[in-house]
Amino acid sequence: MVKIIDAELLRAAPQLVAFVEADALDAQNPAHATWLREKLTRLEQGGAVFFGYFAGGRLAGFASIQVEMRPPEVCGGWGSCELLQIGVEEQSRRQGAGKALLRAIEEYLAPKHIYCLYLHTYARDRRAISFYLKNRFVPAGTVPHVYGPGAEGMLFLVRRLQ
Ligand SMILES: CC(C)(COP(=O)(O)OP(=O)(O)OC[C@H]1O[C@@H](n2cnc3c(N)ncnc32)[C@H](O)[C@@H]1OP(=O)(O)O)[C@@H](O)C(=O)NCCC(=O)NCCS
What we know:
Elements lengths: L1 E4 L1 H5 L2 H8 L8 H16 L3 E7 L2 E11 L10 E10 L8 H13 L4 E9 L3 H9 L3 E6 L10 E7 L2
Parallel strand pairs: 4-5
Antiparallel strand pairs: 1-2, 2-3, 3-4, 5-7, 6-7
Bound molecules: coenzyme A.
């Protein structure tokens, strides 16, 4: 079951948020825990909407989005939406939870005048890229240097909703 949740619920599940952000993050590490809390606050203050995936009543995954609506005089009034985060706890992966989160986001966006859903990810993250391709996103370009020297760039993927 997927529903809109408060960021507070994610603050209570820091390891879940850590897994989604980067494998190297450990919510037990005080510096990482602070970084994770600050990141959630930044997203919240930017107007993010959070979706929780529940398995047996337990929060087992989540996603966040940021919607950009525009007045009719700008871009024909078409809005867009960025998928900011999506992740599912390890033991619940590959059972359709990620797809269910995307479906709930799509339903949330359906009545709005939103032209596309887009996101970026690490260009070598095969697992995530496979997931997005399976869910009808298409690669739209890579920005180099974002993750530092020697690393791959940031890959953008997009899916038209209209
Ligand atoms: C990406 C993620 C959200 C997918 O969630 P999920 O619940 O497993 O997704 P679904 O069950 O709906 O879809 C599974 C599909 O995703 C891809 N996938 C998921 N895990 C994978 C893995 N370990 N290796 C390869 N492909 C994988 C495959 O295409 C898979 O389809 P398949 O099982 O038929 O091969 C999940 O793997 C995750 O939380 N990853 C860590 C966080 C992350 O990378 N987030 C995205 C960063 S931008």
